[in-house]
Write a structure and sequence with these properties.
- The protein is mostly beta strands.
- The chain has one domain.
- It is built from 4 helices and 15 strands.
- A 15-stranded antiparallel sheet has the order 1-10-11-12-13-14-15-2-3-4-5-6-7-8-9, covered by helices on one side.
- Strand 8 and strand 9 form a beta hairpin.
């Protein structure tokens, strides 16, 4: 089997697993539902629990029962830019896969506004000999997305409405109604265009987690783009069936077998405070690749 197939896992799946929902901070008051980038729009009350200002989720990633990597997602309110929220994700290979397929990827998305839409997204790719810096800028007001890879010339794409990226969409899913029989959609910009991702709510059940045996909701997003880890399909995401909807497990089929991300550590500190604005510039966040 080719080693690169082991990690052909879409960012949604990684992210979702990731902590899918470590993403918790209270949203700014107000906000036009038509500008949420989701239909139906997120529940304002749930959204308040999705961005607490300081949350960390750590996942172990398994393939055929073997631990192949770890993923840590952090949601925090930068002191330099208190009107924004940073979603940071670090993915690392583990055990023998450190040699077979070394991965030290770093992702940082900056979101702002009532609906937590992305304004900047940095991907620092470090996978053995493959090293890249990819920066995406979102002008949600003028409906432009600009992509810059390493030192190449920027490429700008027009969009028809507000969009999420793979990580902000993953987080905003937690605040959707999630009712069985009532699908939702999220507008996601990936692979040079906007995709309307259908979110289907499945069954509710009890699941053994780090919180004990708790009620969970299974959700299946229908991915129509390859994303960062070259994977289309229908991953399954399990959220706690409460006001926080913590993503405790993510599973997705790959070429051989499936990848499963399980939440193994979780911390949350509700320190978020609303700010009408800040003096920081877009260039200050996120920091360049190290």
């Amino acid at each position: 089997m080719k080693k690169n197939r082991l990690f052909q896992f879409n960012a949604w799946q990684f992210a979702g697993l990731i902590c899918l929902f470590s993403f918790l901070f209270p949203p700014a008051a107000g906000g036009d539902p038509s500008e949420a980038g989701a239909n139906p729009p997120p529940n304002p009350e749930l959204l308040k629990n999705i961005y607490p200002g300081d949350e960390t989720l750590k996942y172990n990633i398994y393939w055929l029962g073997i631990k192949v990597g770890t993923m840590v997602m952090r949601i925090e309110q930068p002191k330099a830019c208190p009107d924004r929220i940073a979603i940071t994700v670090d993915v690392r290979s583990a055990n023998i896969f450190i040699i077979l397929h070394p991965v030290k990827d770093h992702f940082k998305t900056i979101v702002s506004g009532a609906w937590r839409l992305p304004i900047r997204y940095l991907f620092c790719q470090d996978e053995g000999s493959r090293k890249n810096r990819k920066l995406t800028l979102y002008d949600q007001k003028n409906l432009n997305v600009t992509y810059i890879k390493n030192d190449k010339k920027p490429v700008t794409y027009k969009i028809k409405g507000p969009v999420h990226n793979e990580y902000s969409s993953f987080l905003i899913t937690r605040a959707l109604p999630l009712e069985k029989g009532k699908d939702a959609t999220i507008s996601v910009f990936a692979d040079k265009k906007t995709h309307e991702i259908q979110i289907t709510t499945q069954e509710k059940k009890l699941l053994s987690t780090i919180f004990g045996k708790v009620p969970v909701i299974r959700v299946k997003p229908m991915l129509t783009f390859k994303g960062l880890y070259n994977k289309k399909g229908k991953p399954s995401i399990w959220f706690t069936d409460d006001e926080f909807r913590v993503p405790v497990k993510v599973k997705a089929k790959i070429t051989i077998g499936s990848l499963t991300a399980e939440l193994v550590e979780y911390s949350r500190n509700e320190t978020y405070t609303e700010h009408p604005g800040s003096t920081c510039t877009d260039e200050e966040l996120p920091q360049p690749c190290l």
